[in-house]
Specification:
By secondary structure, the chain is of the alpha+beta class. Helix content is about 30%, strand content about 30%. Among the domains are: about 1-120, no CATH class; about 400-480, no CATH class; about 495-565, Nucleic acid-binding proteins (OB fold (Dihydrolipoamide Acetyltransferase, E2P)). Helix 2 runs antiparallel to helix 3 (about 30-55), helix 2 (about 15-25) packs parallel to helix 4 (about 60-85) and helix 4 runs antiparallel to helix 5 (about 90-115). The termini are far apart. Keywords: DNA-binding, Membrane, Transmembrane, Transmembrane helix. This is DNA-binding protein. It comes from Gracilibacillus thailandensis.
Length: about 575
């Protein structure tokens, strides 16, 4: 309760000053004014305290100034009426009180203006690393290929395994890495106030794979009293507020699970800059709460316990993207000139961003940036926000100019199945053999997964659909090979020189031409070459010796960029 008590005292300060002014100036009996003033103060303090208990306003200059002005507007007229019921207020009292209120109102306006001017400083507080060329995500990064809507749908169907399921609803899904597997974690939350009174504690949490669409949810029995759906002093945000009332909380607290399977609630918080509510993005904190005991500890986000992937919340990552893109040259430029302004798309799975994991198991929030100009669906670049440090990496430049943005990729899927009303969800840009490619989940109106879509980011007509991620990836790679006009690997792709004797050959035909696949003796790699690149490849046969420049892929296959057949070229 300490946070509520402190905030309420601060909210009454202007009223106390107004009371002192009234007592000092009024010609009425001072003790009578003070008596009524104190009675109104106590009543106002109790009512304000009850309101603050539920609203939990952070103790910041803008919040407390607004609260003070509201209290003054309500309580001072009440005081003036009580001390002179039905009579006109003394001019010598009313005039200074109006001036006093006007000064407070002007102060609020100044604070609001400072909030806009501080946006430039908030932008500068972002730790930014910019790359000259936009690099699509490589195969070493792990996109979350299971849409949260689909995962939630599956877990909802499994709620019957929870003891007394009528007491509970499913909470917010949070993605994290648990024992080397990337999963969604979803706490079981109370279904309402009366269910909270009956149940007292929640039953546990669910996990489900975030990368395998065929995986089934698993329920973990772990009773929790301090949750997002508890009431009174067991409500997680209120527990944090009472201990850290000077901090602003970013989004809703989320569940993260340690290596022993114990859940913890994690909440990103920050102290605002100056007299505003704007965050200093260099100084973010995270509070970790034991949902059983309510014990909590605050850390710098990059010093949180190792099992926590998202000490920077997805809501904070979205805010950071907005500040980075919109206020690059200050607030005025974001409204009028809009020079170099970039707007983050909101196609992600969590608050407009999508979590991905790199080859080291570190989590980042991905989002693509587009132009503020309407009817433009090309991407200007994309950002990755480190989920532990908050550092933002921006990939932009000339290389990927002209690729469609995430909204454009979703629209391609939406237009493909109008009669079935299937929609595209959670597009993620990554690299397929040097080609920037959007991977999009296709869900039906009930949130059930139907297909994956692989869309070439610089060619809206190049789309491949499939039932599984691997099947769709293989089909997409084959389509890339079959397209004679397709540009092959990018300059950054490593090619290898391969020599050997042909052991098996397969030639297939398609509308785009002929595809030759072959194996070499004592080599299990499947080599694929488009006959449009190497016309002599269709005459390849067992026993031929070849010398080839190939691009090795990650699934035991390779694409041939150049092919020399000794028996045919001697």
């Amino acid at each position: 309760m300490i946070g509520v008590l402190i905030a309420t005292v601060i909210a009454m300060l202007l009223y106390v000053v107004g009371l002192i002014i009234t007592v000092s100036i009024s010609s009425l009996n001072a003790s009578r004014i003070m008596k009524h003033g104190l009675i109104i103060f106590v009543i106002g303090y109790v009512i304000t305290g009850v309101i603050f208990y539920f609203m939990m306003p952070a103790i910041t200059v803008p919040n407390m100034l607004i609260a003070n002005l509201i209290v003054v507007v309500v309580l001072l007229p009440l005081l003036l009426y009580v001390i002179q019921p039905g009579e006109k207020v003394e001019t010598k009292v009313l005039s200074p009180l109006i001036i006093f209120f006007g000064v407070g109102l002007i102060g609020l306006i100044v604070v609001i203006i400072l909030g806009f001017t501080t946006l430039d400083e908030a932008h500068q507080s972002i730790t930014v690393q910019e790359e000259e060329e936009a690099e699509p995500l490589t195969k070493d990064e792990t996109p979350i290929t299971v849409a949260p809507e689909f995962a939630r749908n599956k877990i909802q169907k499994a709620m019957s395994v929870v003891p007394n399921p009528q007491f509970y609803d499913l909470g917010k899904l949070q993605v994290q890495k648990v024992k080397e597997e990337i999963v969604y974690v979803a706490p079981v939350e109370f279904a309402g106030f009366w269910k909270y009174l009956r149940g007292k504690e929640t039953a546990g949490y669910f996990t489900i794979s975030a990368t395998n669409v065929n995986a089934q949810p698993a329920f973990h029995d772990s009773a929790m009293q301090y949750t997002n759906s508890s009431y009174f002093n067991k409500y997680v945000q209120r527990v944090i507020y009472n201990k850290y009332p000077h901090y602003i909380q970013s989004g809703e607290a989320q569940i993260e699970v340690d290596d022993e399977g114990k859940p913890w609630y994690v909440q990103t918080i920050y102290r605002p800059m100056h007299v505003t509510n704007k965050p200093n993005l260099e100084d973010l904190k995270v509070v970790v709460i034991d949902p059983t005991s309510g014990d909590m500890q605050m850390f710098d986000t990059n010093e949180a316990p190792e099992f926590i992937e998202g000490s920077v919340s997805s809501e904070m990552a979205t805010l950071e993207n907005n500040y980075f893109g919109k206020y690059i040259h200050g607030w005025l430029n974001s409204v009028f000139g809009k020079r170099d302004v970039k707007i983050p798309n909101e196609s992600g799975s969590e608050s407009g961003v999508t979590p991905i994991f790199d080859e080291n198991g570190d989590m980042f929030y991905f989002t693509d940036m587009t132009s503020p100009k309407e009817n433009i669906d090309s991407a200007l670049g994309y950002t990755l926000v480190d989920a532990r440090t908050g550092e933002l990496i921006y990939y932009g430049g000339e290389k990927n100019n002209g690729i469609m943005d995430s909204e454009g990729a979703k629209q391609i899927v939406n237009k493909e199945f109008p009669e079935k009303k299937w929609k595209g969800y959670m597009p993620v840009l990554y690299n397929v053999d040097g080609n920037p490619t959007w991977v999009v989940n296709v869900l039906d109106p009930n949130g059930l997964h139907k297909q994956y879509a692989y869309i070439k980011a610089n060619d809206s007509d190049f789309v491949v659909f499939g039932d599984t991620a691997n099947e769709t990836l293989d089909a997409y790679r084959m389509a890339l090979l079959q397209a004679p006009g397709n540009v092959g690997a990018t300059d950054e792709t490593v090619t290898e020189q391969v020599t050997g004797e042909v052991d098996r050959v397969l030639v297939t035909s398609s509308e785009q031409g002929q595809i030759v696949q072959f194996l070499l003796t004592d080599d299990s790699t499947i080599y694929t070459v488009n006959a449009s690149k190497s016309p002599l490849a269709i005459f390849l046969e067992k026993g031929d010796s070849i010398d080839a420049e190939v691009q090795m892929l990650d699934n035991g296959t390779a694409t041939v960029e150049e092919l020399l057949i000794e028996e045919l070229t001697e």
